[in-house]
Amino acid sequence: MNMRGFLIAAPQSGSGKTTVSLAIMAALARRGLTVAPFKCGPDFIDPGYHQLVTGRASINLDGWMCPAEFVRDTFRLHAAGSDVAVIEGVMGLFDGIGSSAGEGSSAQIAALSGAPVVLVVNARGMAASAAALVKGFAEFDPQVRLAGVIFNNVGSPSHGELLCQSLAAALPDVAVFGCIPRDDSLAIASRHLGLVTAEDNPLSTEFVDRLAEMAEGCLDLERLIELGFDSAQPPVRVRLSDEERLVSAVEPPVRIAVARDVAFCFCYPDNLRLLREAGAEIVFFSPLADPGLPPDISGIYLPGGYPELHAERLAANTGMRSAIFAAVRADMPLYGECGGLIYLSQGLAEGAESVGIFPAQARMLPKRKALGYRQVEICADTPIGAAGSVARGHEFHYSEIDPLPEEIARVYRVTRQGRALSAEGYSYRNCLASYIHLHFGSNPAIAPAFVSACRIYLGNGNVS
What we know:
Layout: E1 5-9, H1 17-30, E2 35-40, H2 45-54, E3 59-61, H3 68-79, E4 84-88, H4 106-113, E5 116-122, H5 128-140, E6 145-154, H6 157-170, E7 175-181, E8 190-191, E9 194-195, H7 205-218, H8 221-226, H9 242-250, E10 254-259, H10 269-277, E11 280-285, E12 299-302, H11 311-316, H12 318-329, E13 334-337, H13 339-344, E14 362-364, E15 370-378, E16 390-397, E17 399-401, E18 409-416, E19 419-420, E20 424-428, E21 431-434, E22 437-438, H14 446-459
Parallel strand pairs: 1-4, 1-5, 2-3, 2-4, 5-6, 6-7, 10-11, 10-12, 12-13, 13-21
Antiparallel strand pairs: 8-9, 14-17, 15-16, 15-18, 16-22, 18-19, 18-20, 20-21
């Protein structure tokens, strides 16, 4: 399988790789090419912008949350049929979960996918030093193939010429794919979790056109398009067991309602894919706008997002709140993450009511409460797995929930890089919610377990 494309990385965060990635994706899509977008790491917000400019869902590739085989397979699965695959990196090229270049880094994804790397260098205030920086990145890890550089924040044509000459003298085999002048008007709005989501800040057609025009005018897109992935990668493997595939093929799908609107928009696309492969029919609904849950469902998935920004509208939709409360009391399997947990609480301390399954209030904090990867060991049977199951995910929020009473079980043993954290994973009847966004690719049994729990609920004569 010979695929064209590349991974866009940077020496550090703030170099402009998101803007450059969006500009390239927009320009290639405007040329009529089918662009397969990807994002290194656990981020939800950048992929939303990728989808906005390409028309295709952007897939997270994370070498810490998911096994190497899953990363390779999911990349090749979603890149298949595209004209060019573009992967946006995370942080600096070699920055991962620890002090050494490894798990969770863009470099790891480049090695697993066979992607050539295009390094976006913020050249503000640099000349020949930029060549020294690039030389270090080019030689740091032999598993990473540095194909070329894009200089960003270039002060003038003469500054760009000096940068190109310095790099050519130091690294003649590393291409310069272009120089981008300083332009603060191309910045994208941000808020407490990073960029404002594409749902809340849909980029205008004019803005996207300007991004594409910048890429067309400043970058050598023809040479970028010709970059190819290392073809010496193993074929896509089947992830579900033969028995699981047989069951999902014979039994009718179970309908699982998944919240999706501007308040609930943080969901890994592969989580939904794995649910479908396990036998689910995904039915989207809006806790903001819909009067109640979809008909004939056997389970609910409440992803994260920004419910705190829409608390009054969520509170006003009493029909939806009552329907979810009744479904949980009827033992329908429900899995909620982060914003989903907040929605299942009694509401924000500022006064907006919510579903009320968990008898505690949530509150927003002036500083970040939690950030980072998490490993979860499930210590009691749950809708997503039996006791002893292990999964991985990510936590990032500025809110906290008041202490819950003892009758609400904590079913997660949570660790961060081997260090134990507070017990989490709140369980009530057949409802499980947590601040942690789990990637179902971290454990291939999660999606089948949730579908099985929904099927059992349906088999017991329940339907909503």
